[in-house]
């Protein structure tokens, strides 16, 4: 479980600090929404270690994350437009960050691509993929990195409706299957309704938990 307790942060010119308190559980998708400028990216930056909290606590399964640098935190980040290396193949993109591209890695890459429905596309250049396929490559990479936490920042916003629904479904099933703690930042109500197991809204620099609409589990 990821736990934030009164995690505090302020940009230099801000008088009042953000003070974030929330819980996110394994196998669940915790959605964060809020108006533009409410602090959603700031929250992800704090969890990722790109912003340094001035007070409060941040722990993962009881381990204090605050002393860890960003690269030492057990998390993957998936953004709106996934930054693949366009000139590299799908397999090379998935392999980025893996220790060695040995035979075992090759097999793992093949398996991960199969899990995200891209089997057989190892040798295609990323530039020749659709937006939805690129997000799948990014998810395959996330699978291989095998981190506890998955942070998603508006990951579906560049996708058409059909691809969006399929990619949502994939995120949900991977979260369950891999036991990830998935945090979804989105101001798209449909994404939140379709995916959220719990839902927080940022208001006045605080996180407020609100009920999840019943449709969440059926779509
Ligand atoms: N580096 C920075 N220095 C100073 N102020 C910042 C900085 N980054 C963000 N802010 C301010 O902090 C507030 C929260 O920004 P943040 O990007 O976290 O909001 P957000 O909810 O992610 O917005 P959006 O939905 O538009 O992406 C905004 O008022 C923003 O202008």
UniProtKB/TrEMBL annotation:
InterPro entries per UniProt: AAA+_ATPase (IPR003593), ABC_SmlMolc_Importer (IPR050093), ABC_transporter-like_ATP-bd (IPR003439), ABC_transporter-like_CS (IPR017871), P-loop_NTPase (IPR027417)
MF (Gene Ontology): ATP binding; ATP hydrolysis activity
PROSITE patterns, per the entry: ABC_TRANSPORTER_1, ABC_TRANSPORTER_2
Coiled-coil portions: none
SUPFAM superfamilies: P-loop containing nucleoside triphosphate hydrolases
Pfam families named among the record's database cross-references: ABC_tran
Highest taxon above the source species: Bacteria
Span of domain ABC transporter: 2-219
Keywords assigned: ATP-binding, Cell inner membrane, Cell membrane, Membrane, Nucleotide-binding, Translocase, Transport
Signal peptide: none
Family per similarity comment: Belongs to the ABC transporter superfamily.
Protein name listed in UniProt: ABC transporter domain-containing protein
Species the sequence originates in: Devosia pacifica
């Amino acid at each position: 479980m990821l736990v934030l307790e009164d995690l505090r942060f302020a940009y230099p010119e801000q008088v009042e600090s953000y003070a974030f308190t929330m819980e996110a559980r394994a196998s669940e998708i915790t959605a964060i929404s809020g108006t533009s400028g409410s602090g959603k990216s700031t929250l992800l930056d704090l969890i990722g270690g790109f912003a340094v909290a001035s007070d409060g606590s941040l722990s993962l399964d009881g381990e204090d994350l605050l002393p860890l640098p960003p690269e030492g935190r057990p998390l993957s980040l998936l953004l709106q437009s996934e930054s693949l290396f366009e000139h590299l193949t799908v397999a090379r993109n998935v392999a980025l960050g893996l220790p060695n591209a040995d035979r075992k890695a090759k097999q793992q890459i093949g398996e991960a691509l199969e899990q995200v429905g891209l089997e057989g596309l190892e040798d295609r250049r990323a530039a020749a993929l659709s937006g939805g396929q690129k997000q799948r490559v990014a998810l395959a990479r996330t699978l291989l990195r095998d981190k506890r936490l998955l942070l998603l920042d508006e990951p579906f916003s560049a996708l058409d409706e059909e691809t969006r629904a399929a990619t949502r479904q994939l995120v949900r099933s991977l979260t369950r299957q891999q036991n990830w703690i998935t945090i979804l930042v989105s101001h798209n109500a449909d994404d939140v309704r379709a995916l959220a197991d719990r839902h927080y809204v940022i208001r006045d620099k605080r996180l407020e938990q609100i009920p999840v609409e019943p449709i969440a589990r059926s779509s």
